[in-house]
Amino acid sequence: MMLLDGNNLTLEKCQKVIYQNEKVGLTEAAWQRVEASRKTVDQAVSDDTVVYGVTTGFGKFSDVTIENDLVADLQMNLIRSHACAVGTPFPEPVTRAMMLLRANALAKGFSGVRRELLQLLLDLLNHRIHPVIPQQGSLGASGDLAPLAHLASVLIGEGEAFVAGRRMAGKDALAQAGLKPVRLAAKEGLALINGTQAMTAVGLIAYLEARNLADRADEIAAMTLECLRGVTDAFHPDVHAVRPYPEQAEVARRILDQVDGSQLVTRQGDIRVQDAYSLRCIPQVHGASRQALRYVREKLLIEMNAATDNPLIFAERGDIVSGGNFHGQPIALAMDFLKIAMAELANVSERRIERLVNPQLNDLPGFLSPKPGLQSGMMIPQYVAASIVSENKVLAHPASVDSIPSSANQEDHVSMGTTAARHALKVVQNVRKVLAIEAMCAAQALEMRGVDKAGRGTRQLYRDIRQRVAPLTRDRSLSKDIERLSEWL
Cross-link named 5-imidazolinone (Ala-Gly), where (predicted)? Predict the structure, then answer.
């Protein structure tokens, strides 16, 4: 069982919980912090202290005092009123990530929840009870209120959940696992929904796939370079040492490793002096995207281990402080950066696809067709790639530059971080399809050049592709082939 302490959650640990269903608990020190922060909340309620969201209303209603005997009703009403997100539910990995991240944030001991509430959240994760959380509706400031309210709804025996692929009422999902809903106490509703866990969860899933695709993009680009008799001088370590971006040098090294032993790549002057940018500048373009990924990783790791609700409980000194850690601007900017960086991997991939299929740009059969003219070969896959790349350009428009005031202008600047994260995930999924098309075209071209002449790395990549997609010997629908390669990637 993985024990959370609120401070040391890593990407690798997240993967184990999200994809391998590893069980989760809390360290004893974390439980002690949780209980200490709860005592501070109880004392504030007992003393009739004015505390935002505990003895007051929310947002613009923060100046409305709530009577002591109604503070529990206030929290239940908060979840019910805020659970109004719309759209297709988040996929299971995102929901699991959201639950894990929220539990880790509560484990820090700055949120004031009771032990029984946090334990129930852990139980949901461990029993694979996944709340139905619609994707649209968060402004990304005041936290991911609407999505997290849907998560919280199941904890109180309301809302809906997926269990083993079946959609059912939240209360039935709990009962099926032998669990009982909780009635929220002071501060707990706010502690559950005032945070950035929706945008961070989506961003985490997007990053994990993006990180993998960055490697695949290098490998596929190396095969294309080989098929087009590319000049390897541009990848020499000395070239990249004088512009010392480590990611750029890493990509160049990876490309040379892939084509090591190849009889197809050329040296400067053998056939041409230099290649087009989509080949010659692979290290510079792919490397820059890797730089962005490094930035995104850094921000995700901070946010995954942060307290992002409001107010925060500082039990050691008995203070309850209102702040703005729920504002998603750091993740919003990171997600906009991620989608721009990944869109560029698809942009340059599509240009390489064009160089593979265009008979005016190479000496291969037109559109890699078995019978050019009679058969169209790989003509239309390039169209598909161009369409997807164009869609990515629309999605890559930054969401973080937009803000619409809410709550009667009390919340007058918001991050739109969840929109940025959702679009980033879509861009990443689109990149996968474009890279699949390049891989399919490159494998076809390599057969025409001679697979036995390929480098050690590209030859293995060719075998991997051919295990999933047959050679194009005559025209056929390639839609399922593209999807199959995309899923593999």
Answer: 141-143
Residue 133 dihedral angles phi and psi, to the nearest 5°:
-125, 105
CATH code assigned to 2-195: 1.10.275.10
Q: Is the peptide bond before 311 cis (omega within 30 degrees of 0)?
A: yes
Model pLDDT for residues 421-430, shown as the tens digit of each residue: 999 999 999 9
The secondary structure of 147-197 as a DSSP string is HHHHHHHHHTT-SEEEETTEEEEHHHHHHHTT-------TTHHHHHHSSSH
- Kind of pairing between the strands at 134-136 and 160-163: unpaired
pTM: 0.96
CATH architecture of 203-488: Up-down Bundle (1.20)
Q: pLDDT tens for residues 324-337?
A: 999 999 999 999 99
Beta bridge partners of 231: 266
- Domain residue limits, the chain: 2-195, 203-488
Catalytic residue among 52, 207, 295, 462: 52
Q: How many other CB atoms are found less than 10 A from the CB of residue 45?
A: 18
Contact 289, 344 (CB under 8 A): yes
Q: Assess whether 207 carries a catalytic annotation.
A: no
3 state SS of 99: helix
